[in-house]
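User: Okay, second chain of the day. Same drill as before: sequence in, C-alpha coordinates out.
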Amino acid sequence: MGNNIAIITARGGSKRIPRKNIRPFLGRPILEYSIEAALQAGLFQEVMVSTDDEEIARVAEKAGAKVPFFRSADTANDFATTADVVEEVLASYERIGRDFHAACCIYPTAPFVTADAIREAMGLLEQEQADCVIPVVKFSFPPQRGVVVSGGRLAPKWPENMAKRSQDLEPLYHDCGQFYCLDVGRFRQQKAIWMENAVPFIQDEKYVQDIDTLQDWEIAEMKYQMMRGRTI
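Assistant: Same drill. C-alpha coordinates below.
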Protein backbone atom coordinates (compact mmCIF):
# COMPACT_ATOMS: atom_id res chain seq x y z
CA MET A 1 0.00 0.00 0.00
CA GLY A 2 1.46 3.35 -1.04
CA ASN A 3 1.04 6.73 0.55
CA ASN A 4 -2.26 7.28 -1.20
CA ILE A 5 -5.65 8.70 -0.33
CA ALA A 6 -9.12 7.98 -1.73
CA ILE A 7 -11.38 11.03 -1.62
CA ILE A 8 -15.09 10.41 -2.13
CA THR A 9 -16.98 13.64 -2.79
CA ALA A 10 -20.52 13.53 -1.34
CA ARG A 11 -22.16 16.81 -0.47
CA GLY A 12 -25.70 16.94 0.87
CA GLY A 13 -27.32 19.15 -1.76
CA SER A 14 -28.78 17.58 -4.90
CA LYS A 15 -31.38 19.28 -7.07
CA ARG A 16 -32.46 16.69 -9.64
CA ILE A 17 -32.43 13.62 -7.36
CA PRO A 18 -33.00 14.58 -3.70
CA ARG A 19 -30.53 12.99 -1.25
CA LYS A 20 -28.91 11.37 -4.28
CA ASN A 21 -25.65 10.40 -2.59
CA ILE A 22 -27.32 8.12 -0.04
CA ARG A 23 -30.44 7.15 -2.00
CA PRO A 24 -30.88 3.35 -1.97
CA PHE A 25 -29.42 1.68 -5.07
CA LEU A 26 -30.71 -1.89 -5.12
CA GLY A 27 -31.31 -1.69 -1.38
CA ARG A 28 -28.03 -0.05 -0.29
CA PRO A 29 -27.06 3.63 -0.07
CA ILE A 30 -25.33 4.29 -3.39
CA LEU A 31 -22.39 5.89 -1.58
CA GLU A 32 -21.48 2.48 -0.13
CA TYR A 33 -20.49 1.12 -3.55
CA SER A 34 -17.75 3.74 -4.02
CA ILE A 35 -16.46 3.25 -0.47
CA GLU A 36 -16.42 -0.53 -0.90
CA ALA A 37 -14.45 -0.31 -4.17
CA ALA A 38 -11.87 2.01 -2.58
CA LEU A 39 -11.42 -0.21 0.46
CA GLN A 40 -11.17 -3.40 -1.59
CA ALA A 41 -8.56 -1.83 -3.88
CA GLY A 42 -6.11 -2.10 -0.96
CA LEU A 43 -4.06 0.89 -2.15
CA PHE A 44 -5.04 3.64 0.24
CA GLN A 45 -3.78 4.63 3.66
CA GLU A 46 -6.92 6.73 3.98
CA VAL A 47 -10.38 6.27 2.46
CA MET A 48 -12.35 9.38 3.34
CA VAL A 49 -15.61 11.06 2.42
CA SER A 50 -15.76 14.81 1.96
CA THR A 51 -19.24 15.97 2.95
CA ASP A 52 -21.13 18.80 4.61
CA ASP A 53 -23.96 16.51 5.73
CA GLU A 54 -24.22 14.63 9.04
CA GLU A 55 -26.42 11.84 7.68
CA ILE A 56 -24.02 11.21 4.80
CA ALA A 57 -21.15 11.19 7.31
CA ARG A 58 -22.92 8.50 9.38
CA VAL A 59 -23.53 6.34 6.31
CA ALA A 60 -19.90 6.78 5.23
CA GLU A 61 -18.46 5.82 8.61
CA LYS A 62 -20.74 2.82 8.91
CA ALA A 63 -19.44 1.64 5.50
CA GLY A 64 -15.84 1.90 6.69
CA ALA A 65 -14.76 5.34 5.43
CA LYS A 66 -13.45 8.17 7.55
CA VAL A 67 -14.94 11.65 7.88
CA PRO A 68 -12.23 13.53 9.80
CA PHE A 69 -13.71 16.96 9.02
CA PHE A 70 -16.71 18.50 7.30
CA ARG A 71 -16.62 20.33 4.02
CA SER A 72 -16.65 24.12 4.18
CA ALA A 73 -19.51 26.23 2.85
CA ASP A 74 -17.27 27.37 -0.01
CA THR A 75 -16.90 23.83 -1.34
CA ALA A 76 -20.46 22.68 -0.55
CA ASN A 77 -22.27 25.09 -2.87
CA ASP A 78 -23.46 24.53 -6.44
CA PHE A 79 -20.47 26.33 -7.94
CA ALA A 80 -17.56 24.51 -6.29
CA THR A 81 -15.56 22.27 -8.62
CA THR A 82 -14.20 18.82 -7.92
CA ALA A 83 -10.72 20.36 -7.92
CA ASP A 84 -11.84 22.82 -5.20
CA VAL A 85 -12.98 19.92 -3.02
CA VAL A 86 -9.80 17.90 -3.54
CA GLU A 87 -7.65 20.95 -2.82
CA GLU A 88 -9.51 21.60 0.44
CA VAL A 89 -9.18 17.96 1.55
CA LEU A 90 -5.44 17.83 0.86
CA ALA A 91 -4.88 21.16 2.64
CA SER A 92 -6.86 19.95 5.67
CA TYR A 93 -4.72 16.83 5.95
CA GLU A 94 -1.55 18.87 5.46
CA ARG A 95 -2.50 21.01 8.46
CA ILE A 96 -2.45 17.91 10.65
CA GLY A 97 0.87 16.77 9.23
CA ARG A 98 -0.33 14.24 6.65
CA ASP A 99 0.80 14.34 3.03
CA PHE A 100 0.01 11.94 0.22
CA HIS A 101 1.81 10.91 -2.96
CA ALA A 102 -1.29 10.15 -5.01
CA ALA A 103 -5.04 10.60 -4.71
CA CYS A 104 -8.03 8.88 -6.24
CA CYS A 105 -11.10 11.10 -6.30
CA ILE A 106 -14.21 8.92 -6.59
CA TYR A 107 -17.74 10.15 -7.18
CA PRO A 108 -20.37 8.88 -4.71
CA THR A 109 -22.85 7.82 -7.40
CA ALA A 110 -20.59 5.42 -9.28
CA PRO A 111 -21.76 1.87 -8.48
CA PHE A 112 -20.01 0.46 -11.56
CA VAL A 113 -16.56 1.39 -10.23
CA THR A 114 -14.61 -1.68 -9.14
CA ALA A 115 -11.53 -2.25 -7.03
CA ASP A 116 -9.85 -3.78 -10.09
CA ALA A 117 -10.48 -0.65 -12.16
CA ILE A 118 -9.06 1.57 -9.43
CA ARG A 119 -5.98 -0.62 -9.09
CA GLU A 120 -5.39 -0.60 -12.84
CA ALA A 121 -5.83 3.15 -13.16
CA MET A 122 -3.61 3.89 -10.16
CA GLY A 123 -1.01 1.57 -11.69
CA LEU A 124 -1.12 3.58 -14.91
CA LEU A 125 -0.56 6.78 -12.94
CA GLU A 126 2.71 5.35 -11.63
CA GLN A 127 3.85 3.50 -14.76
CA GLU A 128 3.23 6.41 -17.12
CA GLN A 129 4.49 9.04 -14.66
CA ALA A 130 1.28 10.87 -15.48
CA ASP A 131 -0.19 13.97 -13.89
CA CYS A 132 -3.56 12.23 -13.88
CA VAL A 133 -5.41 9.22 -15.22
CA ILE A 134 -8.92 9.85 -16.55
CA PRO A 135 -11.40 7.01 -17.19
CA VAL A 136 -13.01 7.59 -20.59
CA VAL A 137 -15.45 5.75 -22.84
CA LYS A 138 -15.83 5.90 -26.61
CA PHE A 139 -18.95 7.59 -27.98
CA SER A 140 -21.24 4.85 -29.29
CA PHE A 141 -22.28 7.05 -32.24
CA PRO A 142 -19.75 9.35 -33.96
CA PRO A 143 -20.41 12.92 -32.79
CA GLN A 144 -18.97 14.21 -36.07
CA ARG A 145 -22.21 13.07 -37.72
CA GLY A 146 -24.44 14.89 -35.25
CA VAL A 147 -27.41 16.96 -36.34
CA VAL A 148 -29.07 20.09 -35.00
CA VAL A 149 -32.68 21.30 -35.08
CA SER A 150 -33.02 24.70 -36.72
CA GLY A 151 -36.38 26.31 -37.48
CA GLY A 152 -38.13 23.00 -36.96
CA ARG A 153 -35.89 21.24 -39.48
CA LEU A 154 -32.96 18.89 -39.13
CA ALA A 155 -29.57 20.00 -40.36
CA PRO A 156 -26.15 18.36 -40.11
CA LYS A 157 -23.77 20.13 -37.78
CA TRP A 158 -20.83 19.17 -39.97
CA PRO A 159 -22.17 18.46 -43.50
CA GLU A 160 -18.76 17.32 -44.71
CA ASN A 161 -18.96 14.28 -42.42
CA MET A 162 -22.41 12.97 -43.34
CA ALA A 163 -21.26 10.79 -46.23
CA LYS A 164 -18.23 9.43 -44.41
CA ARG A 165 -18.18 5.93 -42.98
CA SER A 166 -18.11 5.67 -39.19
CA GLN A 167 -14.82 3.77 -39.32
CA ASP A 168 -13.22 6.62 -41.26
CA LEU A 169 -13.96 9.17 -38.53
CA GLU A 170 -11.57 9.68 -35.63
CA PRO A 171 -12.82 7.90 -32.48
CA LEU A 172 -13.88 10.38 -29.80
CA TYR A 173 -14.15 9.67 -26.09
CA HIS A 174 -15.80 11.31 -23.10
CA ASP A 175 -15.18 11.35 -19.37
CA CYS A 176 -16.91 8.47 -17.58
CA GLY A 177 -17.68 10.65 -14.56
CA GLN A 178 -16.61 7.95 -12.11
CA PHE A 179 -13.18 8.64 -10.65
CA TYR A 180 -9.85 10.39 -11.26
CA CYS A 181 -6.33 9.36 -10.25
CA LEU A 182 -4.07 12.29 -9.42
CA ASP A 183 -0.41 12.89 -8.69
CA VAL A 184 -0.73 15.10 -5.62
CA GLY A 185 2.40 17.17 -6.26
CA ARG A 186 1.34 18.02 -9.79
CA PHE A 187 -2.22 18.66 -8.67
CA ARG A 188 -0.96 21.25 -6.19
CA GLN A 189 0.89 22.97 -9.01
CA GLN A 190 -1.90 22.90 -11.60
CA LYS A 191 -4.97 22.90 -9.32
CA ALA A 192 -7.03 20.97 -11.86
CA ILE A 193 -8.44 17.48 -12.30
CA TRP A 194 -7.64 17.37 -16.02
CA MET A 195 -3.94 18.18 -16.00
CA GLU A 196 -1.36 18.62 -18.75
CA ASN A 197 -0.04 15.06 -18.82
CA ALA A 198 -3.34 13.17 -18.74
CA VAL A 199 -3.37 9.44 -19.51
CA PRO A 200 -6.63 7.72 -20.58
CA PHE A 201 -8.07 4.68 -18.86
CA ILE A 202 -10.42 3.39 -21.54
CA GLN A 203 -13.56 1.75 -20.16
CA ASP A 204 -16.04 -0.59 -21.80
CA GLU A 205 -19.42 1.05 -22.31
CA LYS A 206 -21.16 -1.63 -20.27
CA TYR A 207 -19.35 -0.40 -17.15
CA VAL A 208 -20.43 3.21 -17.61
CA GLN A 209 -23.76 4.85 -16.79
CA ASP A 210 -24.46 8.50 -16.03
CA ILE A 211 -26.90 8.90 -13.15
CA ASP A 212 -28.31 12.41 -13.39
CA THR A 213 -32.06 11.74 -13.46
CA LEU A 214 -34.47 9.22 -11.93
CA GLN A 215 -34.71 7.53 -15.33
CA ASP A 216 -30.91 7.19 -15.37
CA TRP A 217 -31.14 5.66 -11.90
CA GLU A 218 -33.62 3.01 -13.03
CA ILE A 219 -31.51 2.16 -16.08
CA ALA A 220 -28.41 1.89 -13.90
CA GLU A 221 -30.12 -0.53 -11.50
CA MET A 222 -31.29 -2.73 -14.37
CA LYS A 223 -27.85 -2.64 -15.98
CA TYR A 224 -26.13 -3.45 -12.69
CA GLN A 225 -28.39 -6.45 -12.09
CA MET A 226 -27.95 -7.77 -15.62
CA MET A 227 -24.17 -7.45 -15.41
CA ARG A 228 -24.16 -9.57 -12.29
CA GLY A 229 -26.59 -12.16 -13.59
CA ARG A 230 -29.34 -11.27 -11.16
CA THR A 231 -33.03 -11.55 -11.89
CA ILE A 232 -34.75 -8.25 -12.51
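The longest helix spans residues 82-95.

User: Thanks, on to the next one.
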